[in-house]
Amino acid sequence: MIQTLLINFLQVLIGFSGGLAVGGGFVAFITVLGIIPRLIQLTKTEKLVKMYGGCVIIGLLIGTYFSFADIILNQSIIILILWGLFHGIFNGLLAAALTEVLNVFPIISKRIKMERHLLILLMAIVFGKIIGSLFQWTIFVK
Amino acid sequence: MTTIVYLRMKKNIDFSEMQEVQLKHIAYVSSTEPLLNKKLENTPIYRITKKDKNIVVMDSFLIIDHLTNIFEAIEIQLIGHSQTIIRVVPKKKPINIFFVSVVWIILFIGTAMTIMNFHYDVSMQEVQQKLHYLLTGEQNQYPLWIQIPYSLGLGIGTLLFFNHWFNKRFNEEPSPLEVEIYKYQQDLDNYLNQYENKLNDTNPTN
After folding, report:
1. Are residues A19 and A55 in the same domain?
2. What is the mean pLDDT of residues B66-86?
3. Shared domain check, A85 and A65
4. pTM (2 decimals)?
5. Are residues A45 and A98 in the same domain?
């Protein structure tokens, strides 16, 4: 009896500390990439910072629930499409925010004197992402 | 009586050939006497020669020194930058389509591969399969209804981040990319101001 109690307590402790570490890491990651500030800037909604923080927390909790719970929601395809689209937008922001991309561009444009064609090159990245992803899901994995 | 002359150095100036540098090329001049302004503006400061290669840094100290020697009874007040970077750049050549295409393809394929590697790295296929089951209750090895909108969303997200669709921009603010390029240019200029300046007797190599 006491032994199971202790083991359970240990599990709670391990789970809780793991969650703390992962949660902290996740928030640090999001913060460093600056996706939220970027979205706030684009939508001019500085006042809603707290709300966006809440969104991230709720999203985290729901994601955790989905990955551990064994439930079925019986939703239609429309939900799938919306889900995929929003996931894609988020990942697009995420990948674009990776500082490597941002640091490579000034150097490329300077080295080969293409300051004026920067936008065309930017489109290469956009289409590369779309086509690469589509290629993977429709051809590559089959 | 001394006249106060205000001098604002330009940050950067591009010349298309080696030429004589006059004060008006590298600085804005203001004083209470229009005649003096004209004279000052046309004062030759420096002659760029082959020896200078293509970058010359003019330090404001040298200019003040030079001007106070020539003109008597002026007092120079410096506002703004303390150095001007002169670049000698030959006339812009027309764009090389070949180069642009090569870089375009590098970026395109590189990005495509990066995103595919990323998807494998995070086992996205499996997660999406599980999600498909969770949302619809059907097993599907290829949950394309999630994956295709996801792929399009990737592009939209990138566009949002950079705030550009080809030459069209969504709002007035500079995009992170433009800020980053500005920062890089700023760093280069700082470096030049330090190491190409004849007054700073330092050299990175010795």
Report:
1. yes
2. 85
3. no
4. 0.70
5. no
